[in-house]
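User: Just a sanity check before I run the rest of the batch. Below are the structure tokens for the first item. I only need the designed sequence back.
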């Protein structure tokens, strides 16, 4: 069967690195994200833009996700893998500083966005009788920490729950899900921290390519196996 993947958050960071790796390994990839210019840059960085489809979409908007999914399936016909790397956080993230509006924005993108995208592509995976879903969670979804803030922590704990529920309900349909839970990664989301890490600190963090290696591990495993959860931290 053709190897078709959808990658959200494909305009930067882990999403971009994962999309590049997928194309390198012979996949065709729908690049999903809010900024079309960034997606086109990712397509160029794959060195084979003909294997990509630029699909701008705000994953926090269910109607937009449904339209994107229809466009992707209209173009490719099916999808074998979904890598959900879209995510956000806010600078004012502590309990003292967090607003209801900011809390809702984080939940909408990190949690609801994951749900909308999984919901949109599960039917085509069921028809195939197989599929791999990789949710880029966080180690803050395993153990809460102050630097992530309650909105981010809550969204990531719940996102892990989505992956677990996929494995419980959909394994009979040949579908598997991985919660990939990295520690600090050198991506643009760091710029939203209350104290932005230095260049020296970023070098010591995980790099997007490290996480993309783990994404490919989950996808390339034989269909009889599943990495249900994988924690990755800087050494």
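Assistant: Here's the designed sequence for the first item:
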């Amino acid at each position: 069967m053709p190897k078709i993947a959808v990658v959200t958050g494909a305009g930067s960071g882990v999403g971009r690195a994962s999309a590049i790796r997928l194309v390198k390994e012979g996949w065709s990839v729908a690049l999903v994200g809010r900024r079309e210019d960034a997606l086109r840059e990712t397509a160029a960085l794959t060195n084979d833009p003909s294997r990509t489809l630029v699909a701008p979409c705000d994953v926090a908007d269910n109607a937009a996700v449904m339209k994107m999914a229809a466009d992707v399936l209209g173009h490719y016909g099916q999808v074998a893998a979904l890598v959900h790397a879209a995510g956000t956080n806010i600078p004012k993230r502590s309990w003292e500083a967090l607003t209801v509006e900011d809390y809702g924005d984080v939940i909408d993108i990190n949690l609801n966005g994951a749900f909308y995208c999984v919901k949109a592509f599960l039917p085509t995976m069921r028809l195939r009788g197989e599929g791999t879903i990789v949710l880029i969670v966080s180690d803050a979804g395993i153990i809460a920490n102050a630097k992530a803030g309650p909105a981010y922590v809550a969204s990531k704990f719940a996102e892990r729950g989505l992956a677990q529920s996929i494995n419980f309900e959909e394994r009979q349909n040949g579908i598997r899900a991985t919660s990939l839970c990295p520690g600090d990664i050198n991506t643009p989301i760091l710029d939203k921290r209350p104290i932005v890490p230095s260049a020296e600190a970023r070098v010591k963090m995980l790099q997007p390519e490290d996480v993309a290696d783990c994404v490919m591990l989950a996808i390339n495993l034989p269909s009889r196996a599943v990495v249900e959860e994988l924690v990755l931290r800087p050494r």
